[in-house]
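pasting for ref
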Amino acid sequence: MDQILVDSGLFGEGLVVVDTPKGVGMYNTSLADMGIEPTKLTKFSVDGIGWSPEIAAERRNPDYLGHGPENRVAILVSPDQDRKPIFLPTFSFTRRLMQNFLVRSMREVADITRDSCVCLQFENGALEYETPKDLLFLDQVTVEVSAGTLIQSASEQRQLVTSFMTPDLGCADPNEIHQLCGKVIASANAHGDLRQRRLEIPPFKFSLIGSFWSRIFGGVFVLRAGAETILIVEDETWLPKIQPDRGERYHVYGITDIDGIIHRLIKEDMLKTDLNKYYRENPAALAELDELERYLTVDAVCRIAPDCDISTMSFTKQKGLLAAHRDKVPSVLSDLLKFRRSFTSEVMGKTEPRTTEALGLLIARPNESLDVNHYQRIIWMLLQRLQKDPPNVLKLYTHDKERFFALFDTWSPAKKRWAARYVSANYLREMDKRDTQGGSS
């Protein structure tokens, strides 16, 4: 990972450090219990589901925590993992799933992790997915919990103590009584007194109400907000295999079919369509267009002068650089300036402002009547993926961190430095927010 991202806190911040022999041993025991090779590292950090960037680097396998992307697991080493970032989620709803699980089970997790990790398996009713089409039927995930032998030992100890405390043991043989007493003592010596500890966590069912994204099959969006479901695949080799059969009501698109996707989102009332009206009725929102101008200007300047320090360049100097290299300035910047002036110019204000296709994609926004967590966030993510290199770096980082990191490697040194500073200063971290939603995605 680029050191600029680490130094600016855009990657790695919020990870929980595991650096004690006991903690490392607990984590390795959990890996072994799930059929995953233990790590040789003596210090590493983990995210909200127990994924470690250091172990991923050690294995040269970002999907080491599980058996393939569709069979990921989670390991809770500490209650401190609550609300922490999740860097490679299989599903976009993973963070919300974990938050809701921990709201219900935090006391048990805190108790169990004194001696053992809490291991989570995510059951979806299918052994594996065969095609992206199978994701259409995903409506619930069940979280199954294990903790090595600790939970079973607690149950056995309670049974032993109950039997021992029963007035009539059911036998007159002193040897049998002595054996039962020995078992109680052996359990106490091995595990301590487990009778009063909160160690049992029943399966947790997480219902999926809204839209989501999955990294399975190379990236798939499942949008459910409209009258019919929309399936969008990023790996377009799947398209011939997932077309609707007779009687099936869903629409399929490849990620490069931008026009088709946008038109479908508009038809299903997922996108706000009358942006002219939106900006006229919300003058404060014009600041969004000013910010977009800033993003496009910075991007162009950094392409023209890839080693510059744009933080020291005045806006006038930036404009002068663009004027001297007009051939390297994207036409969408000119489109934006004309569109923006139409809301303040007395002359242009008499005509309806025109939005080009390229500009329309940059200023598109989800219908605000949709639920933020269930629908708007995933549409924001989709809008980022429809753009080749989204200029709004803050929105890109907010809604699609994985793609932000991938594109970051392709940017000039000047843009890397500027983007890291800008996003670090303006991003509101998810772990600083309080989620008041219920138990669904």
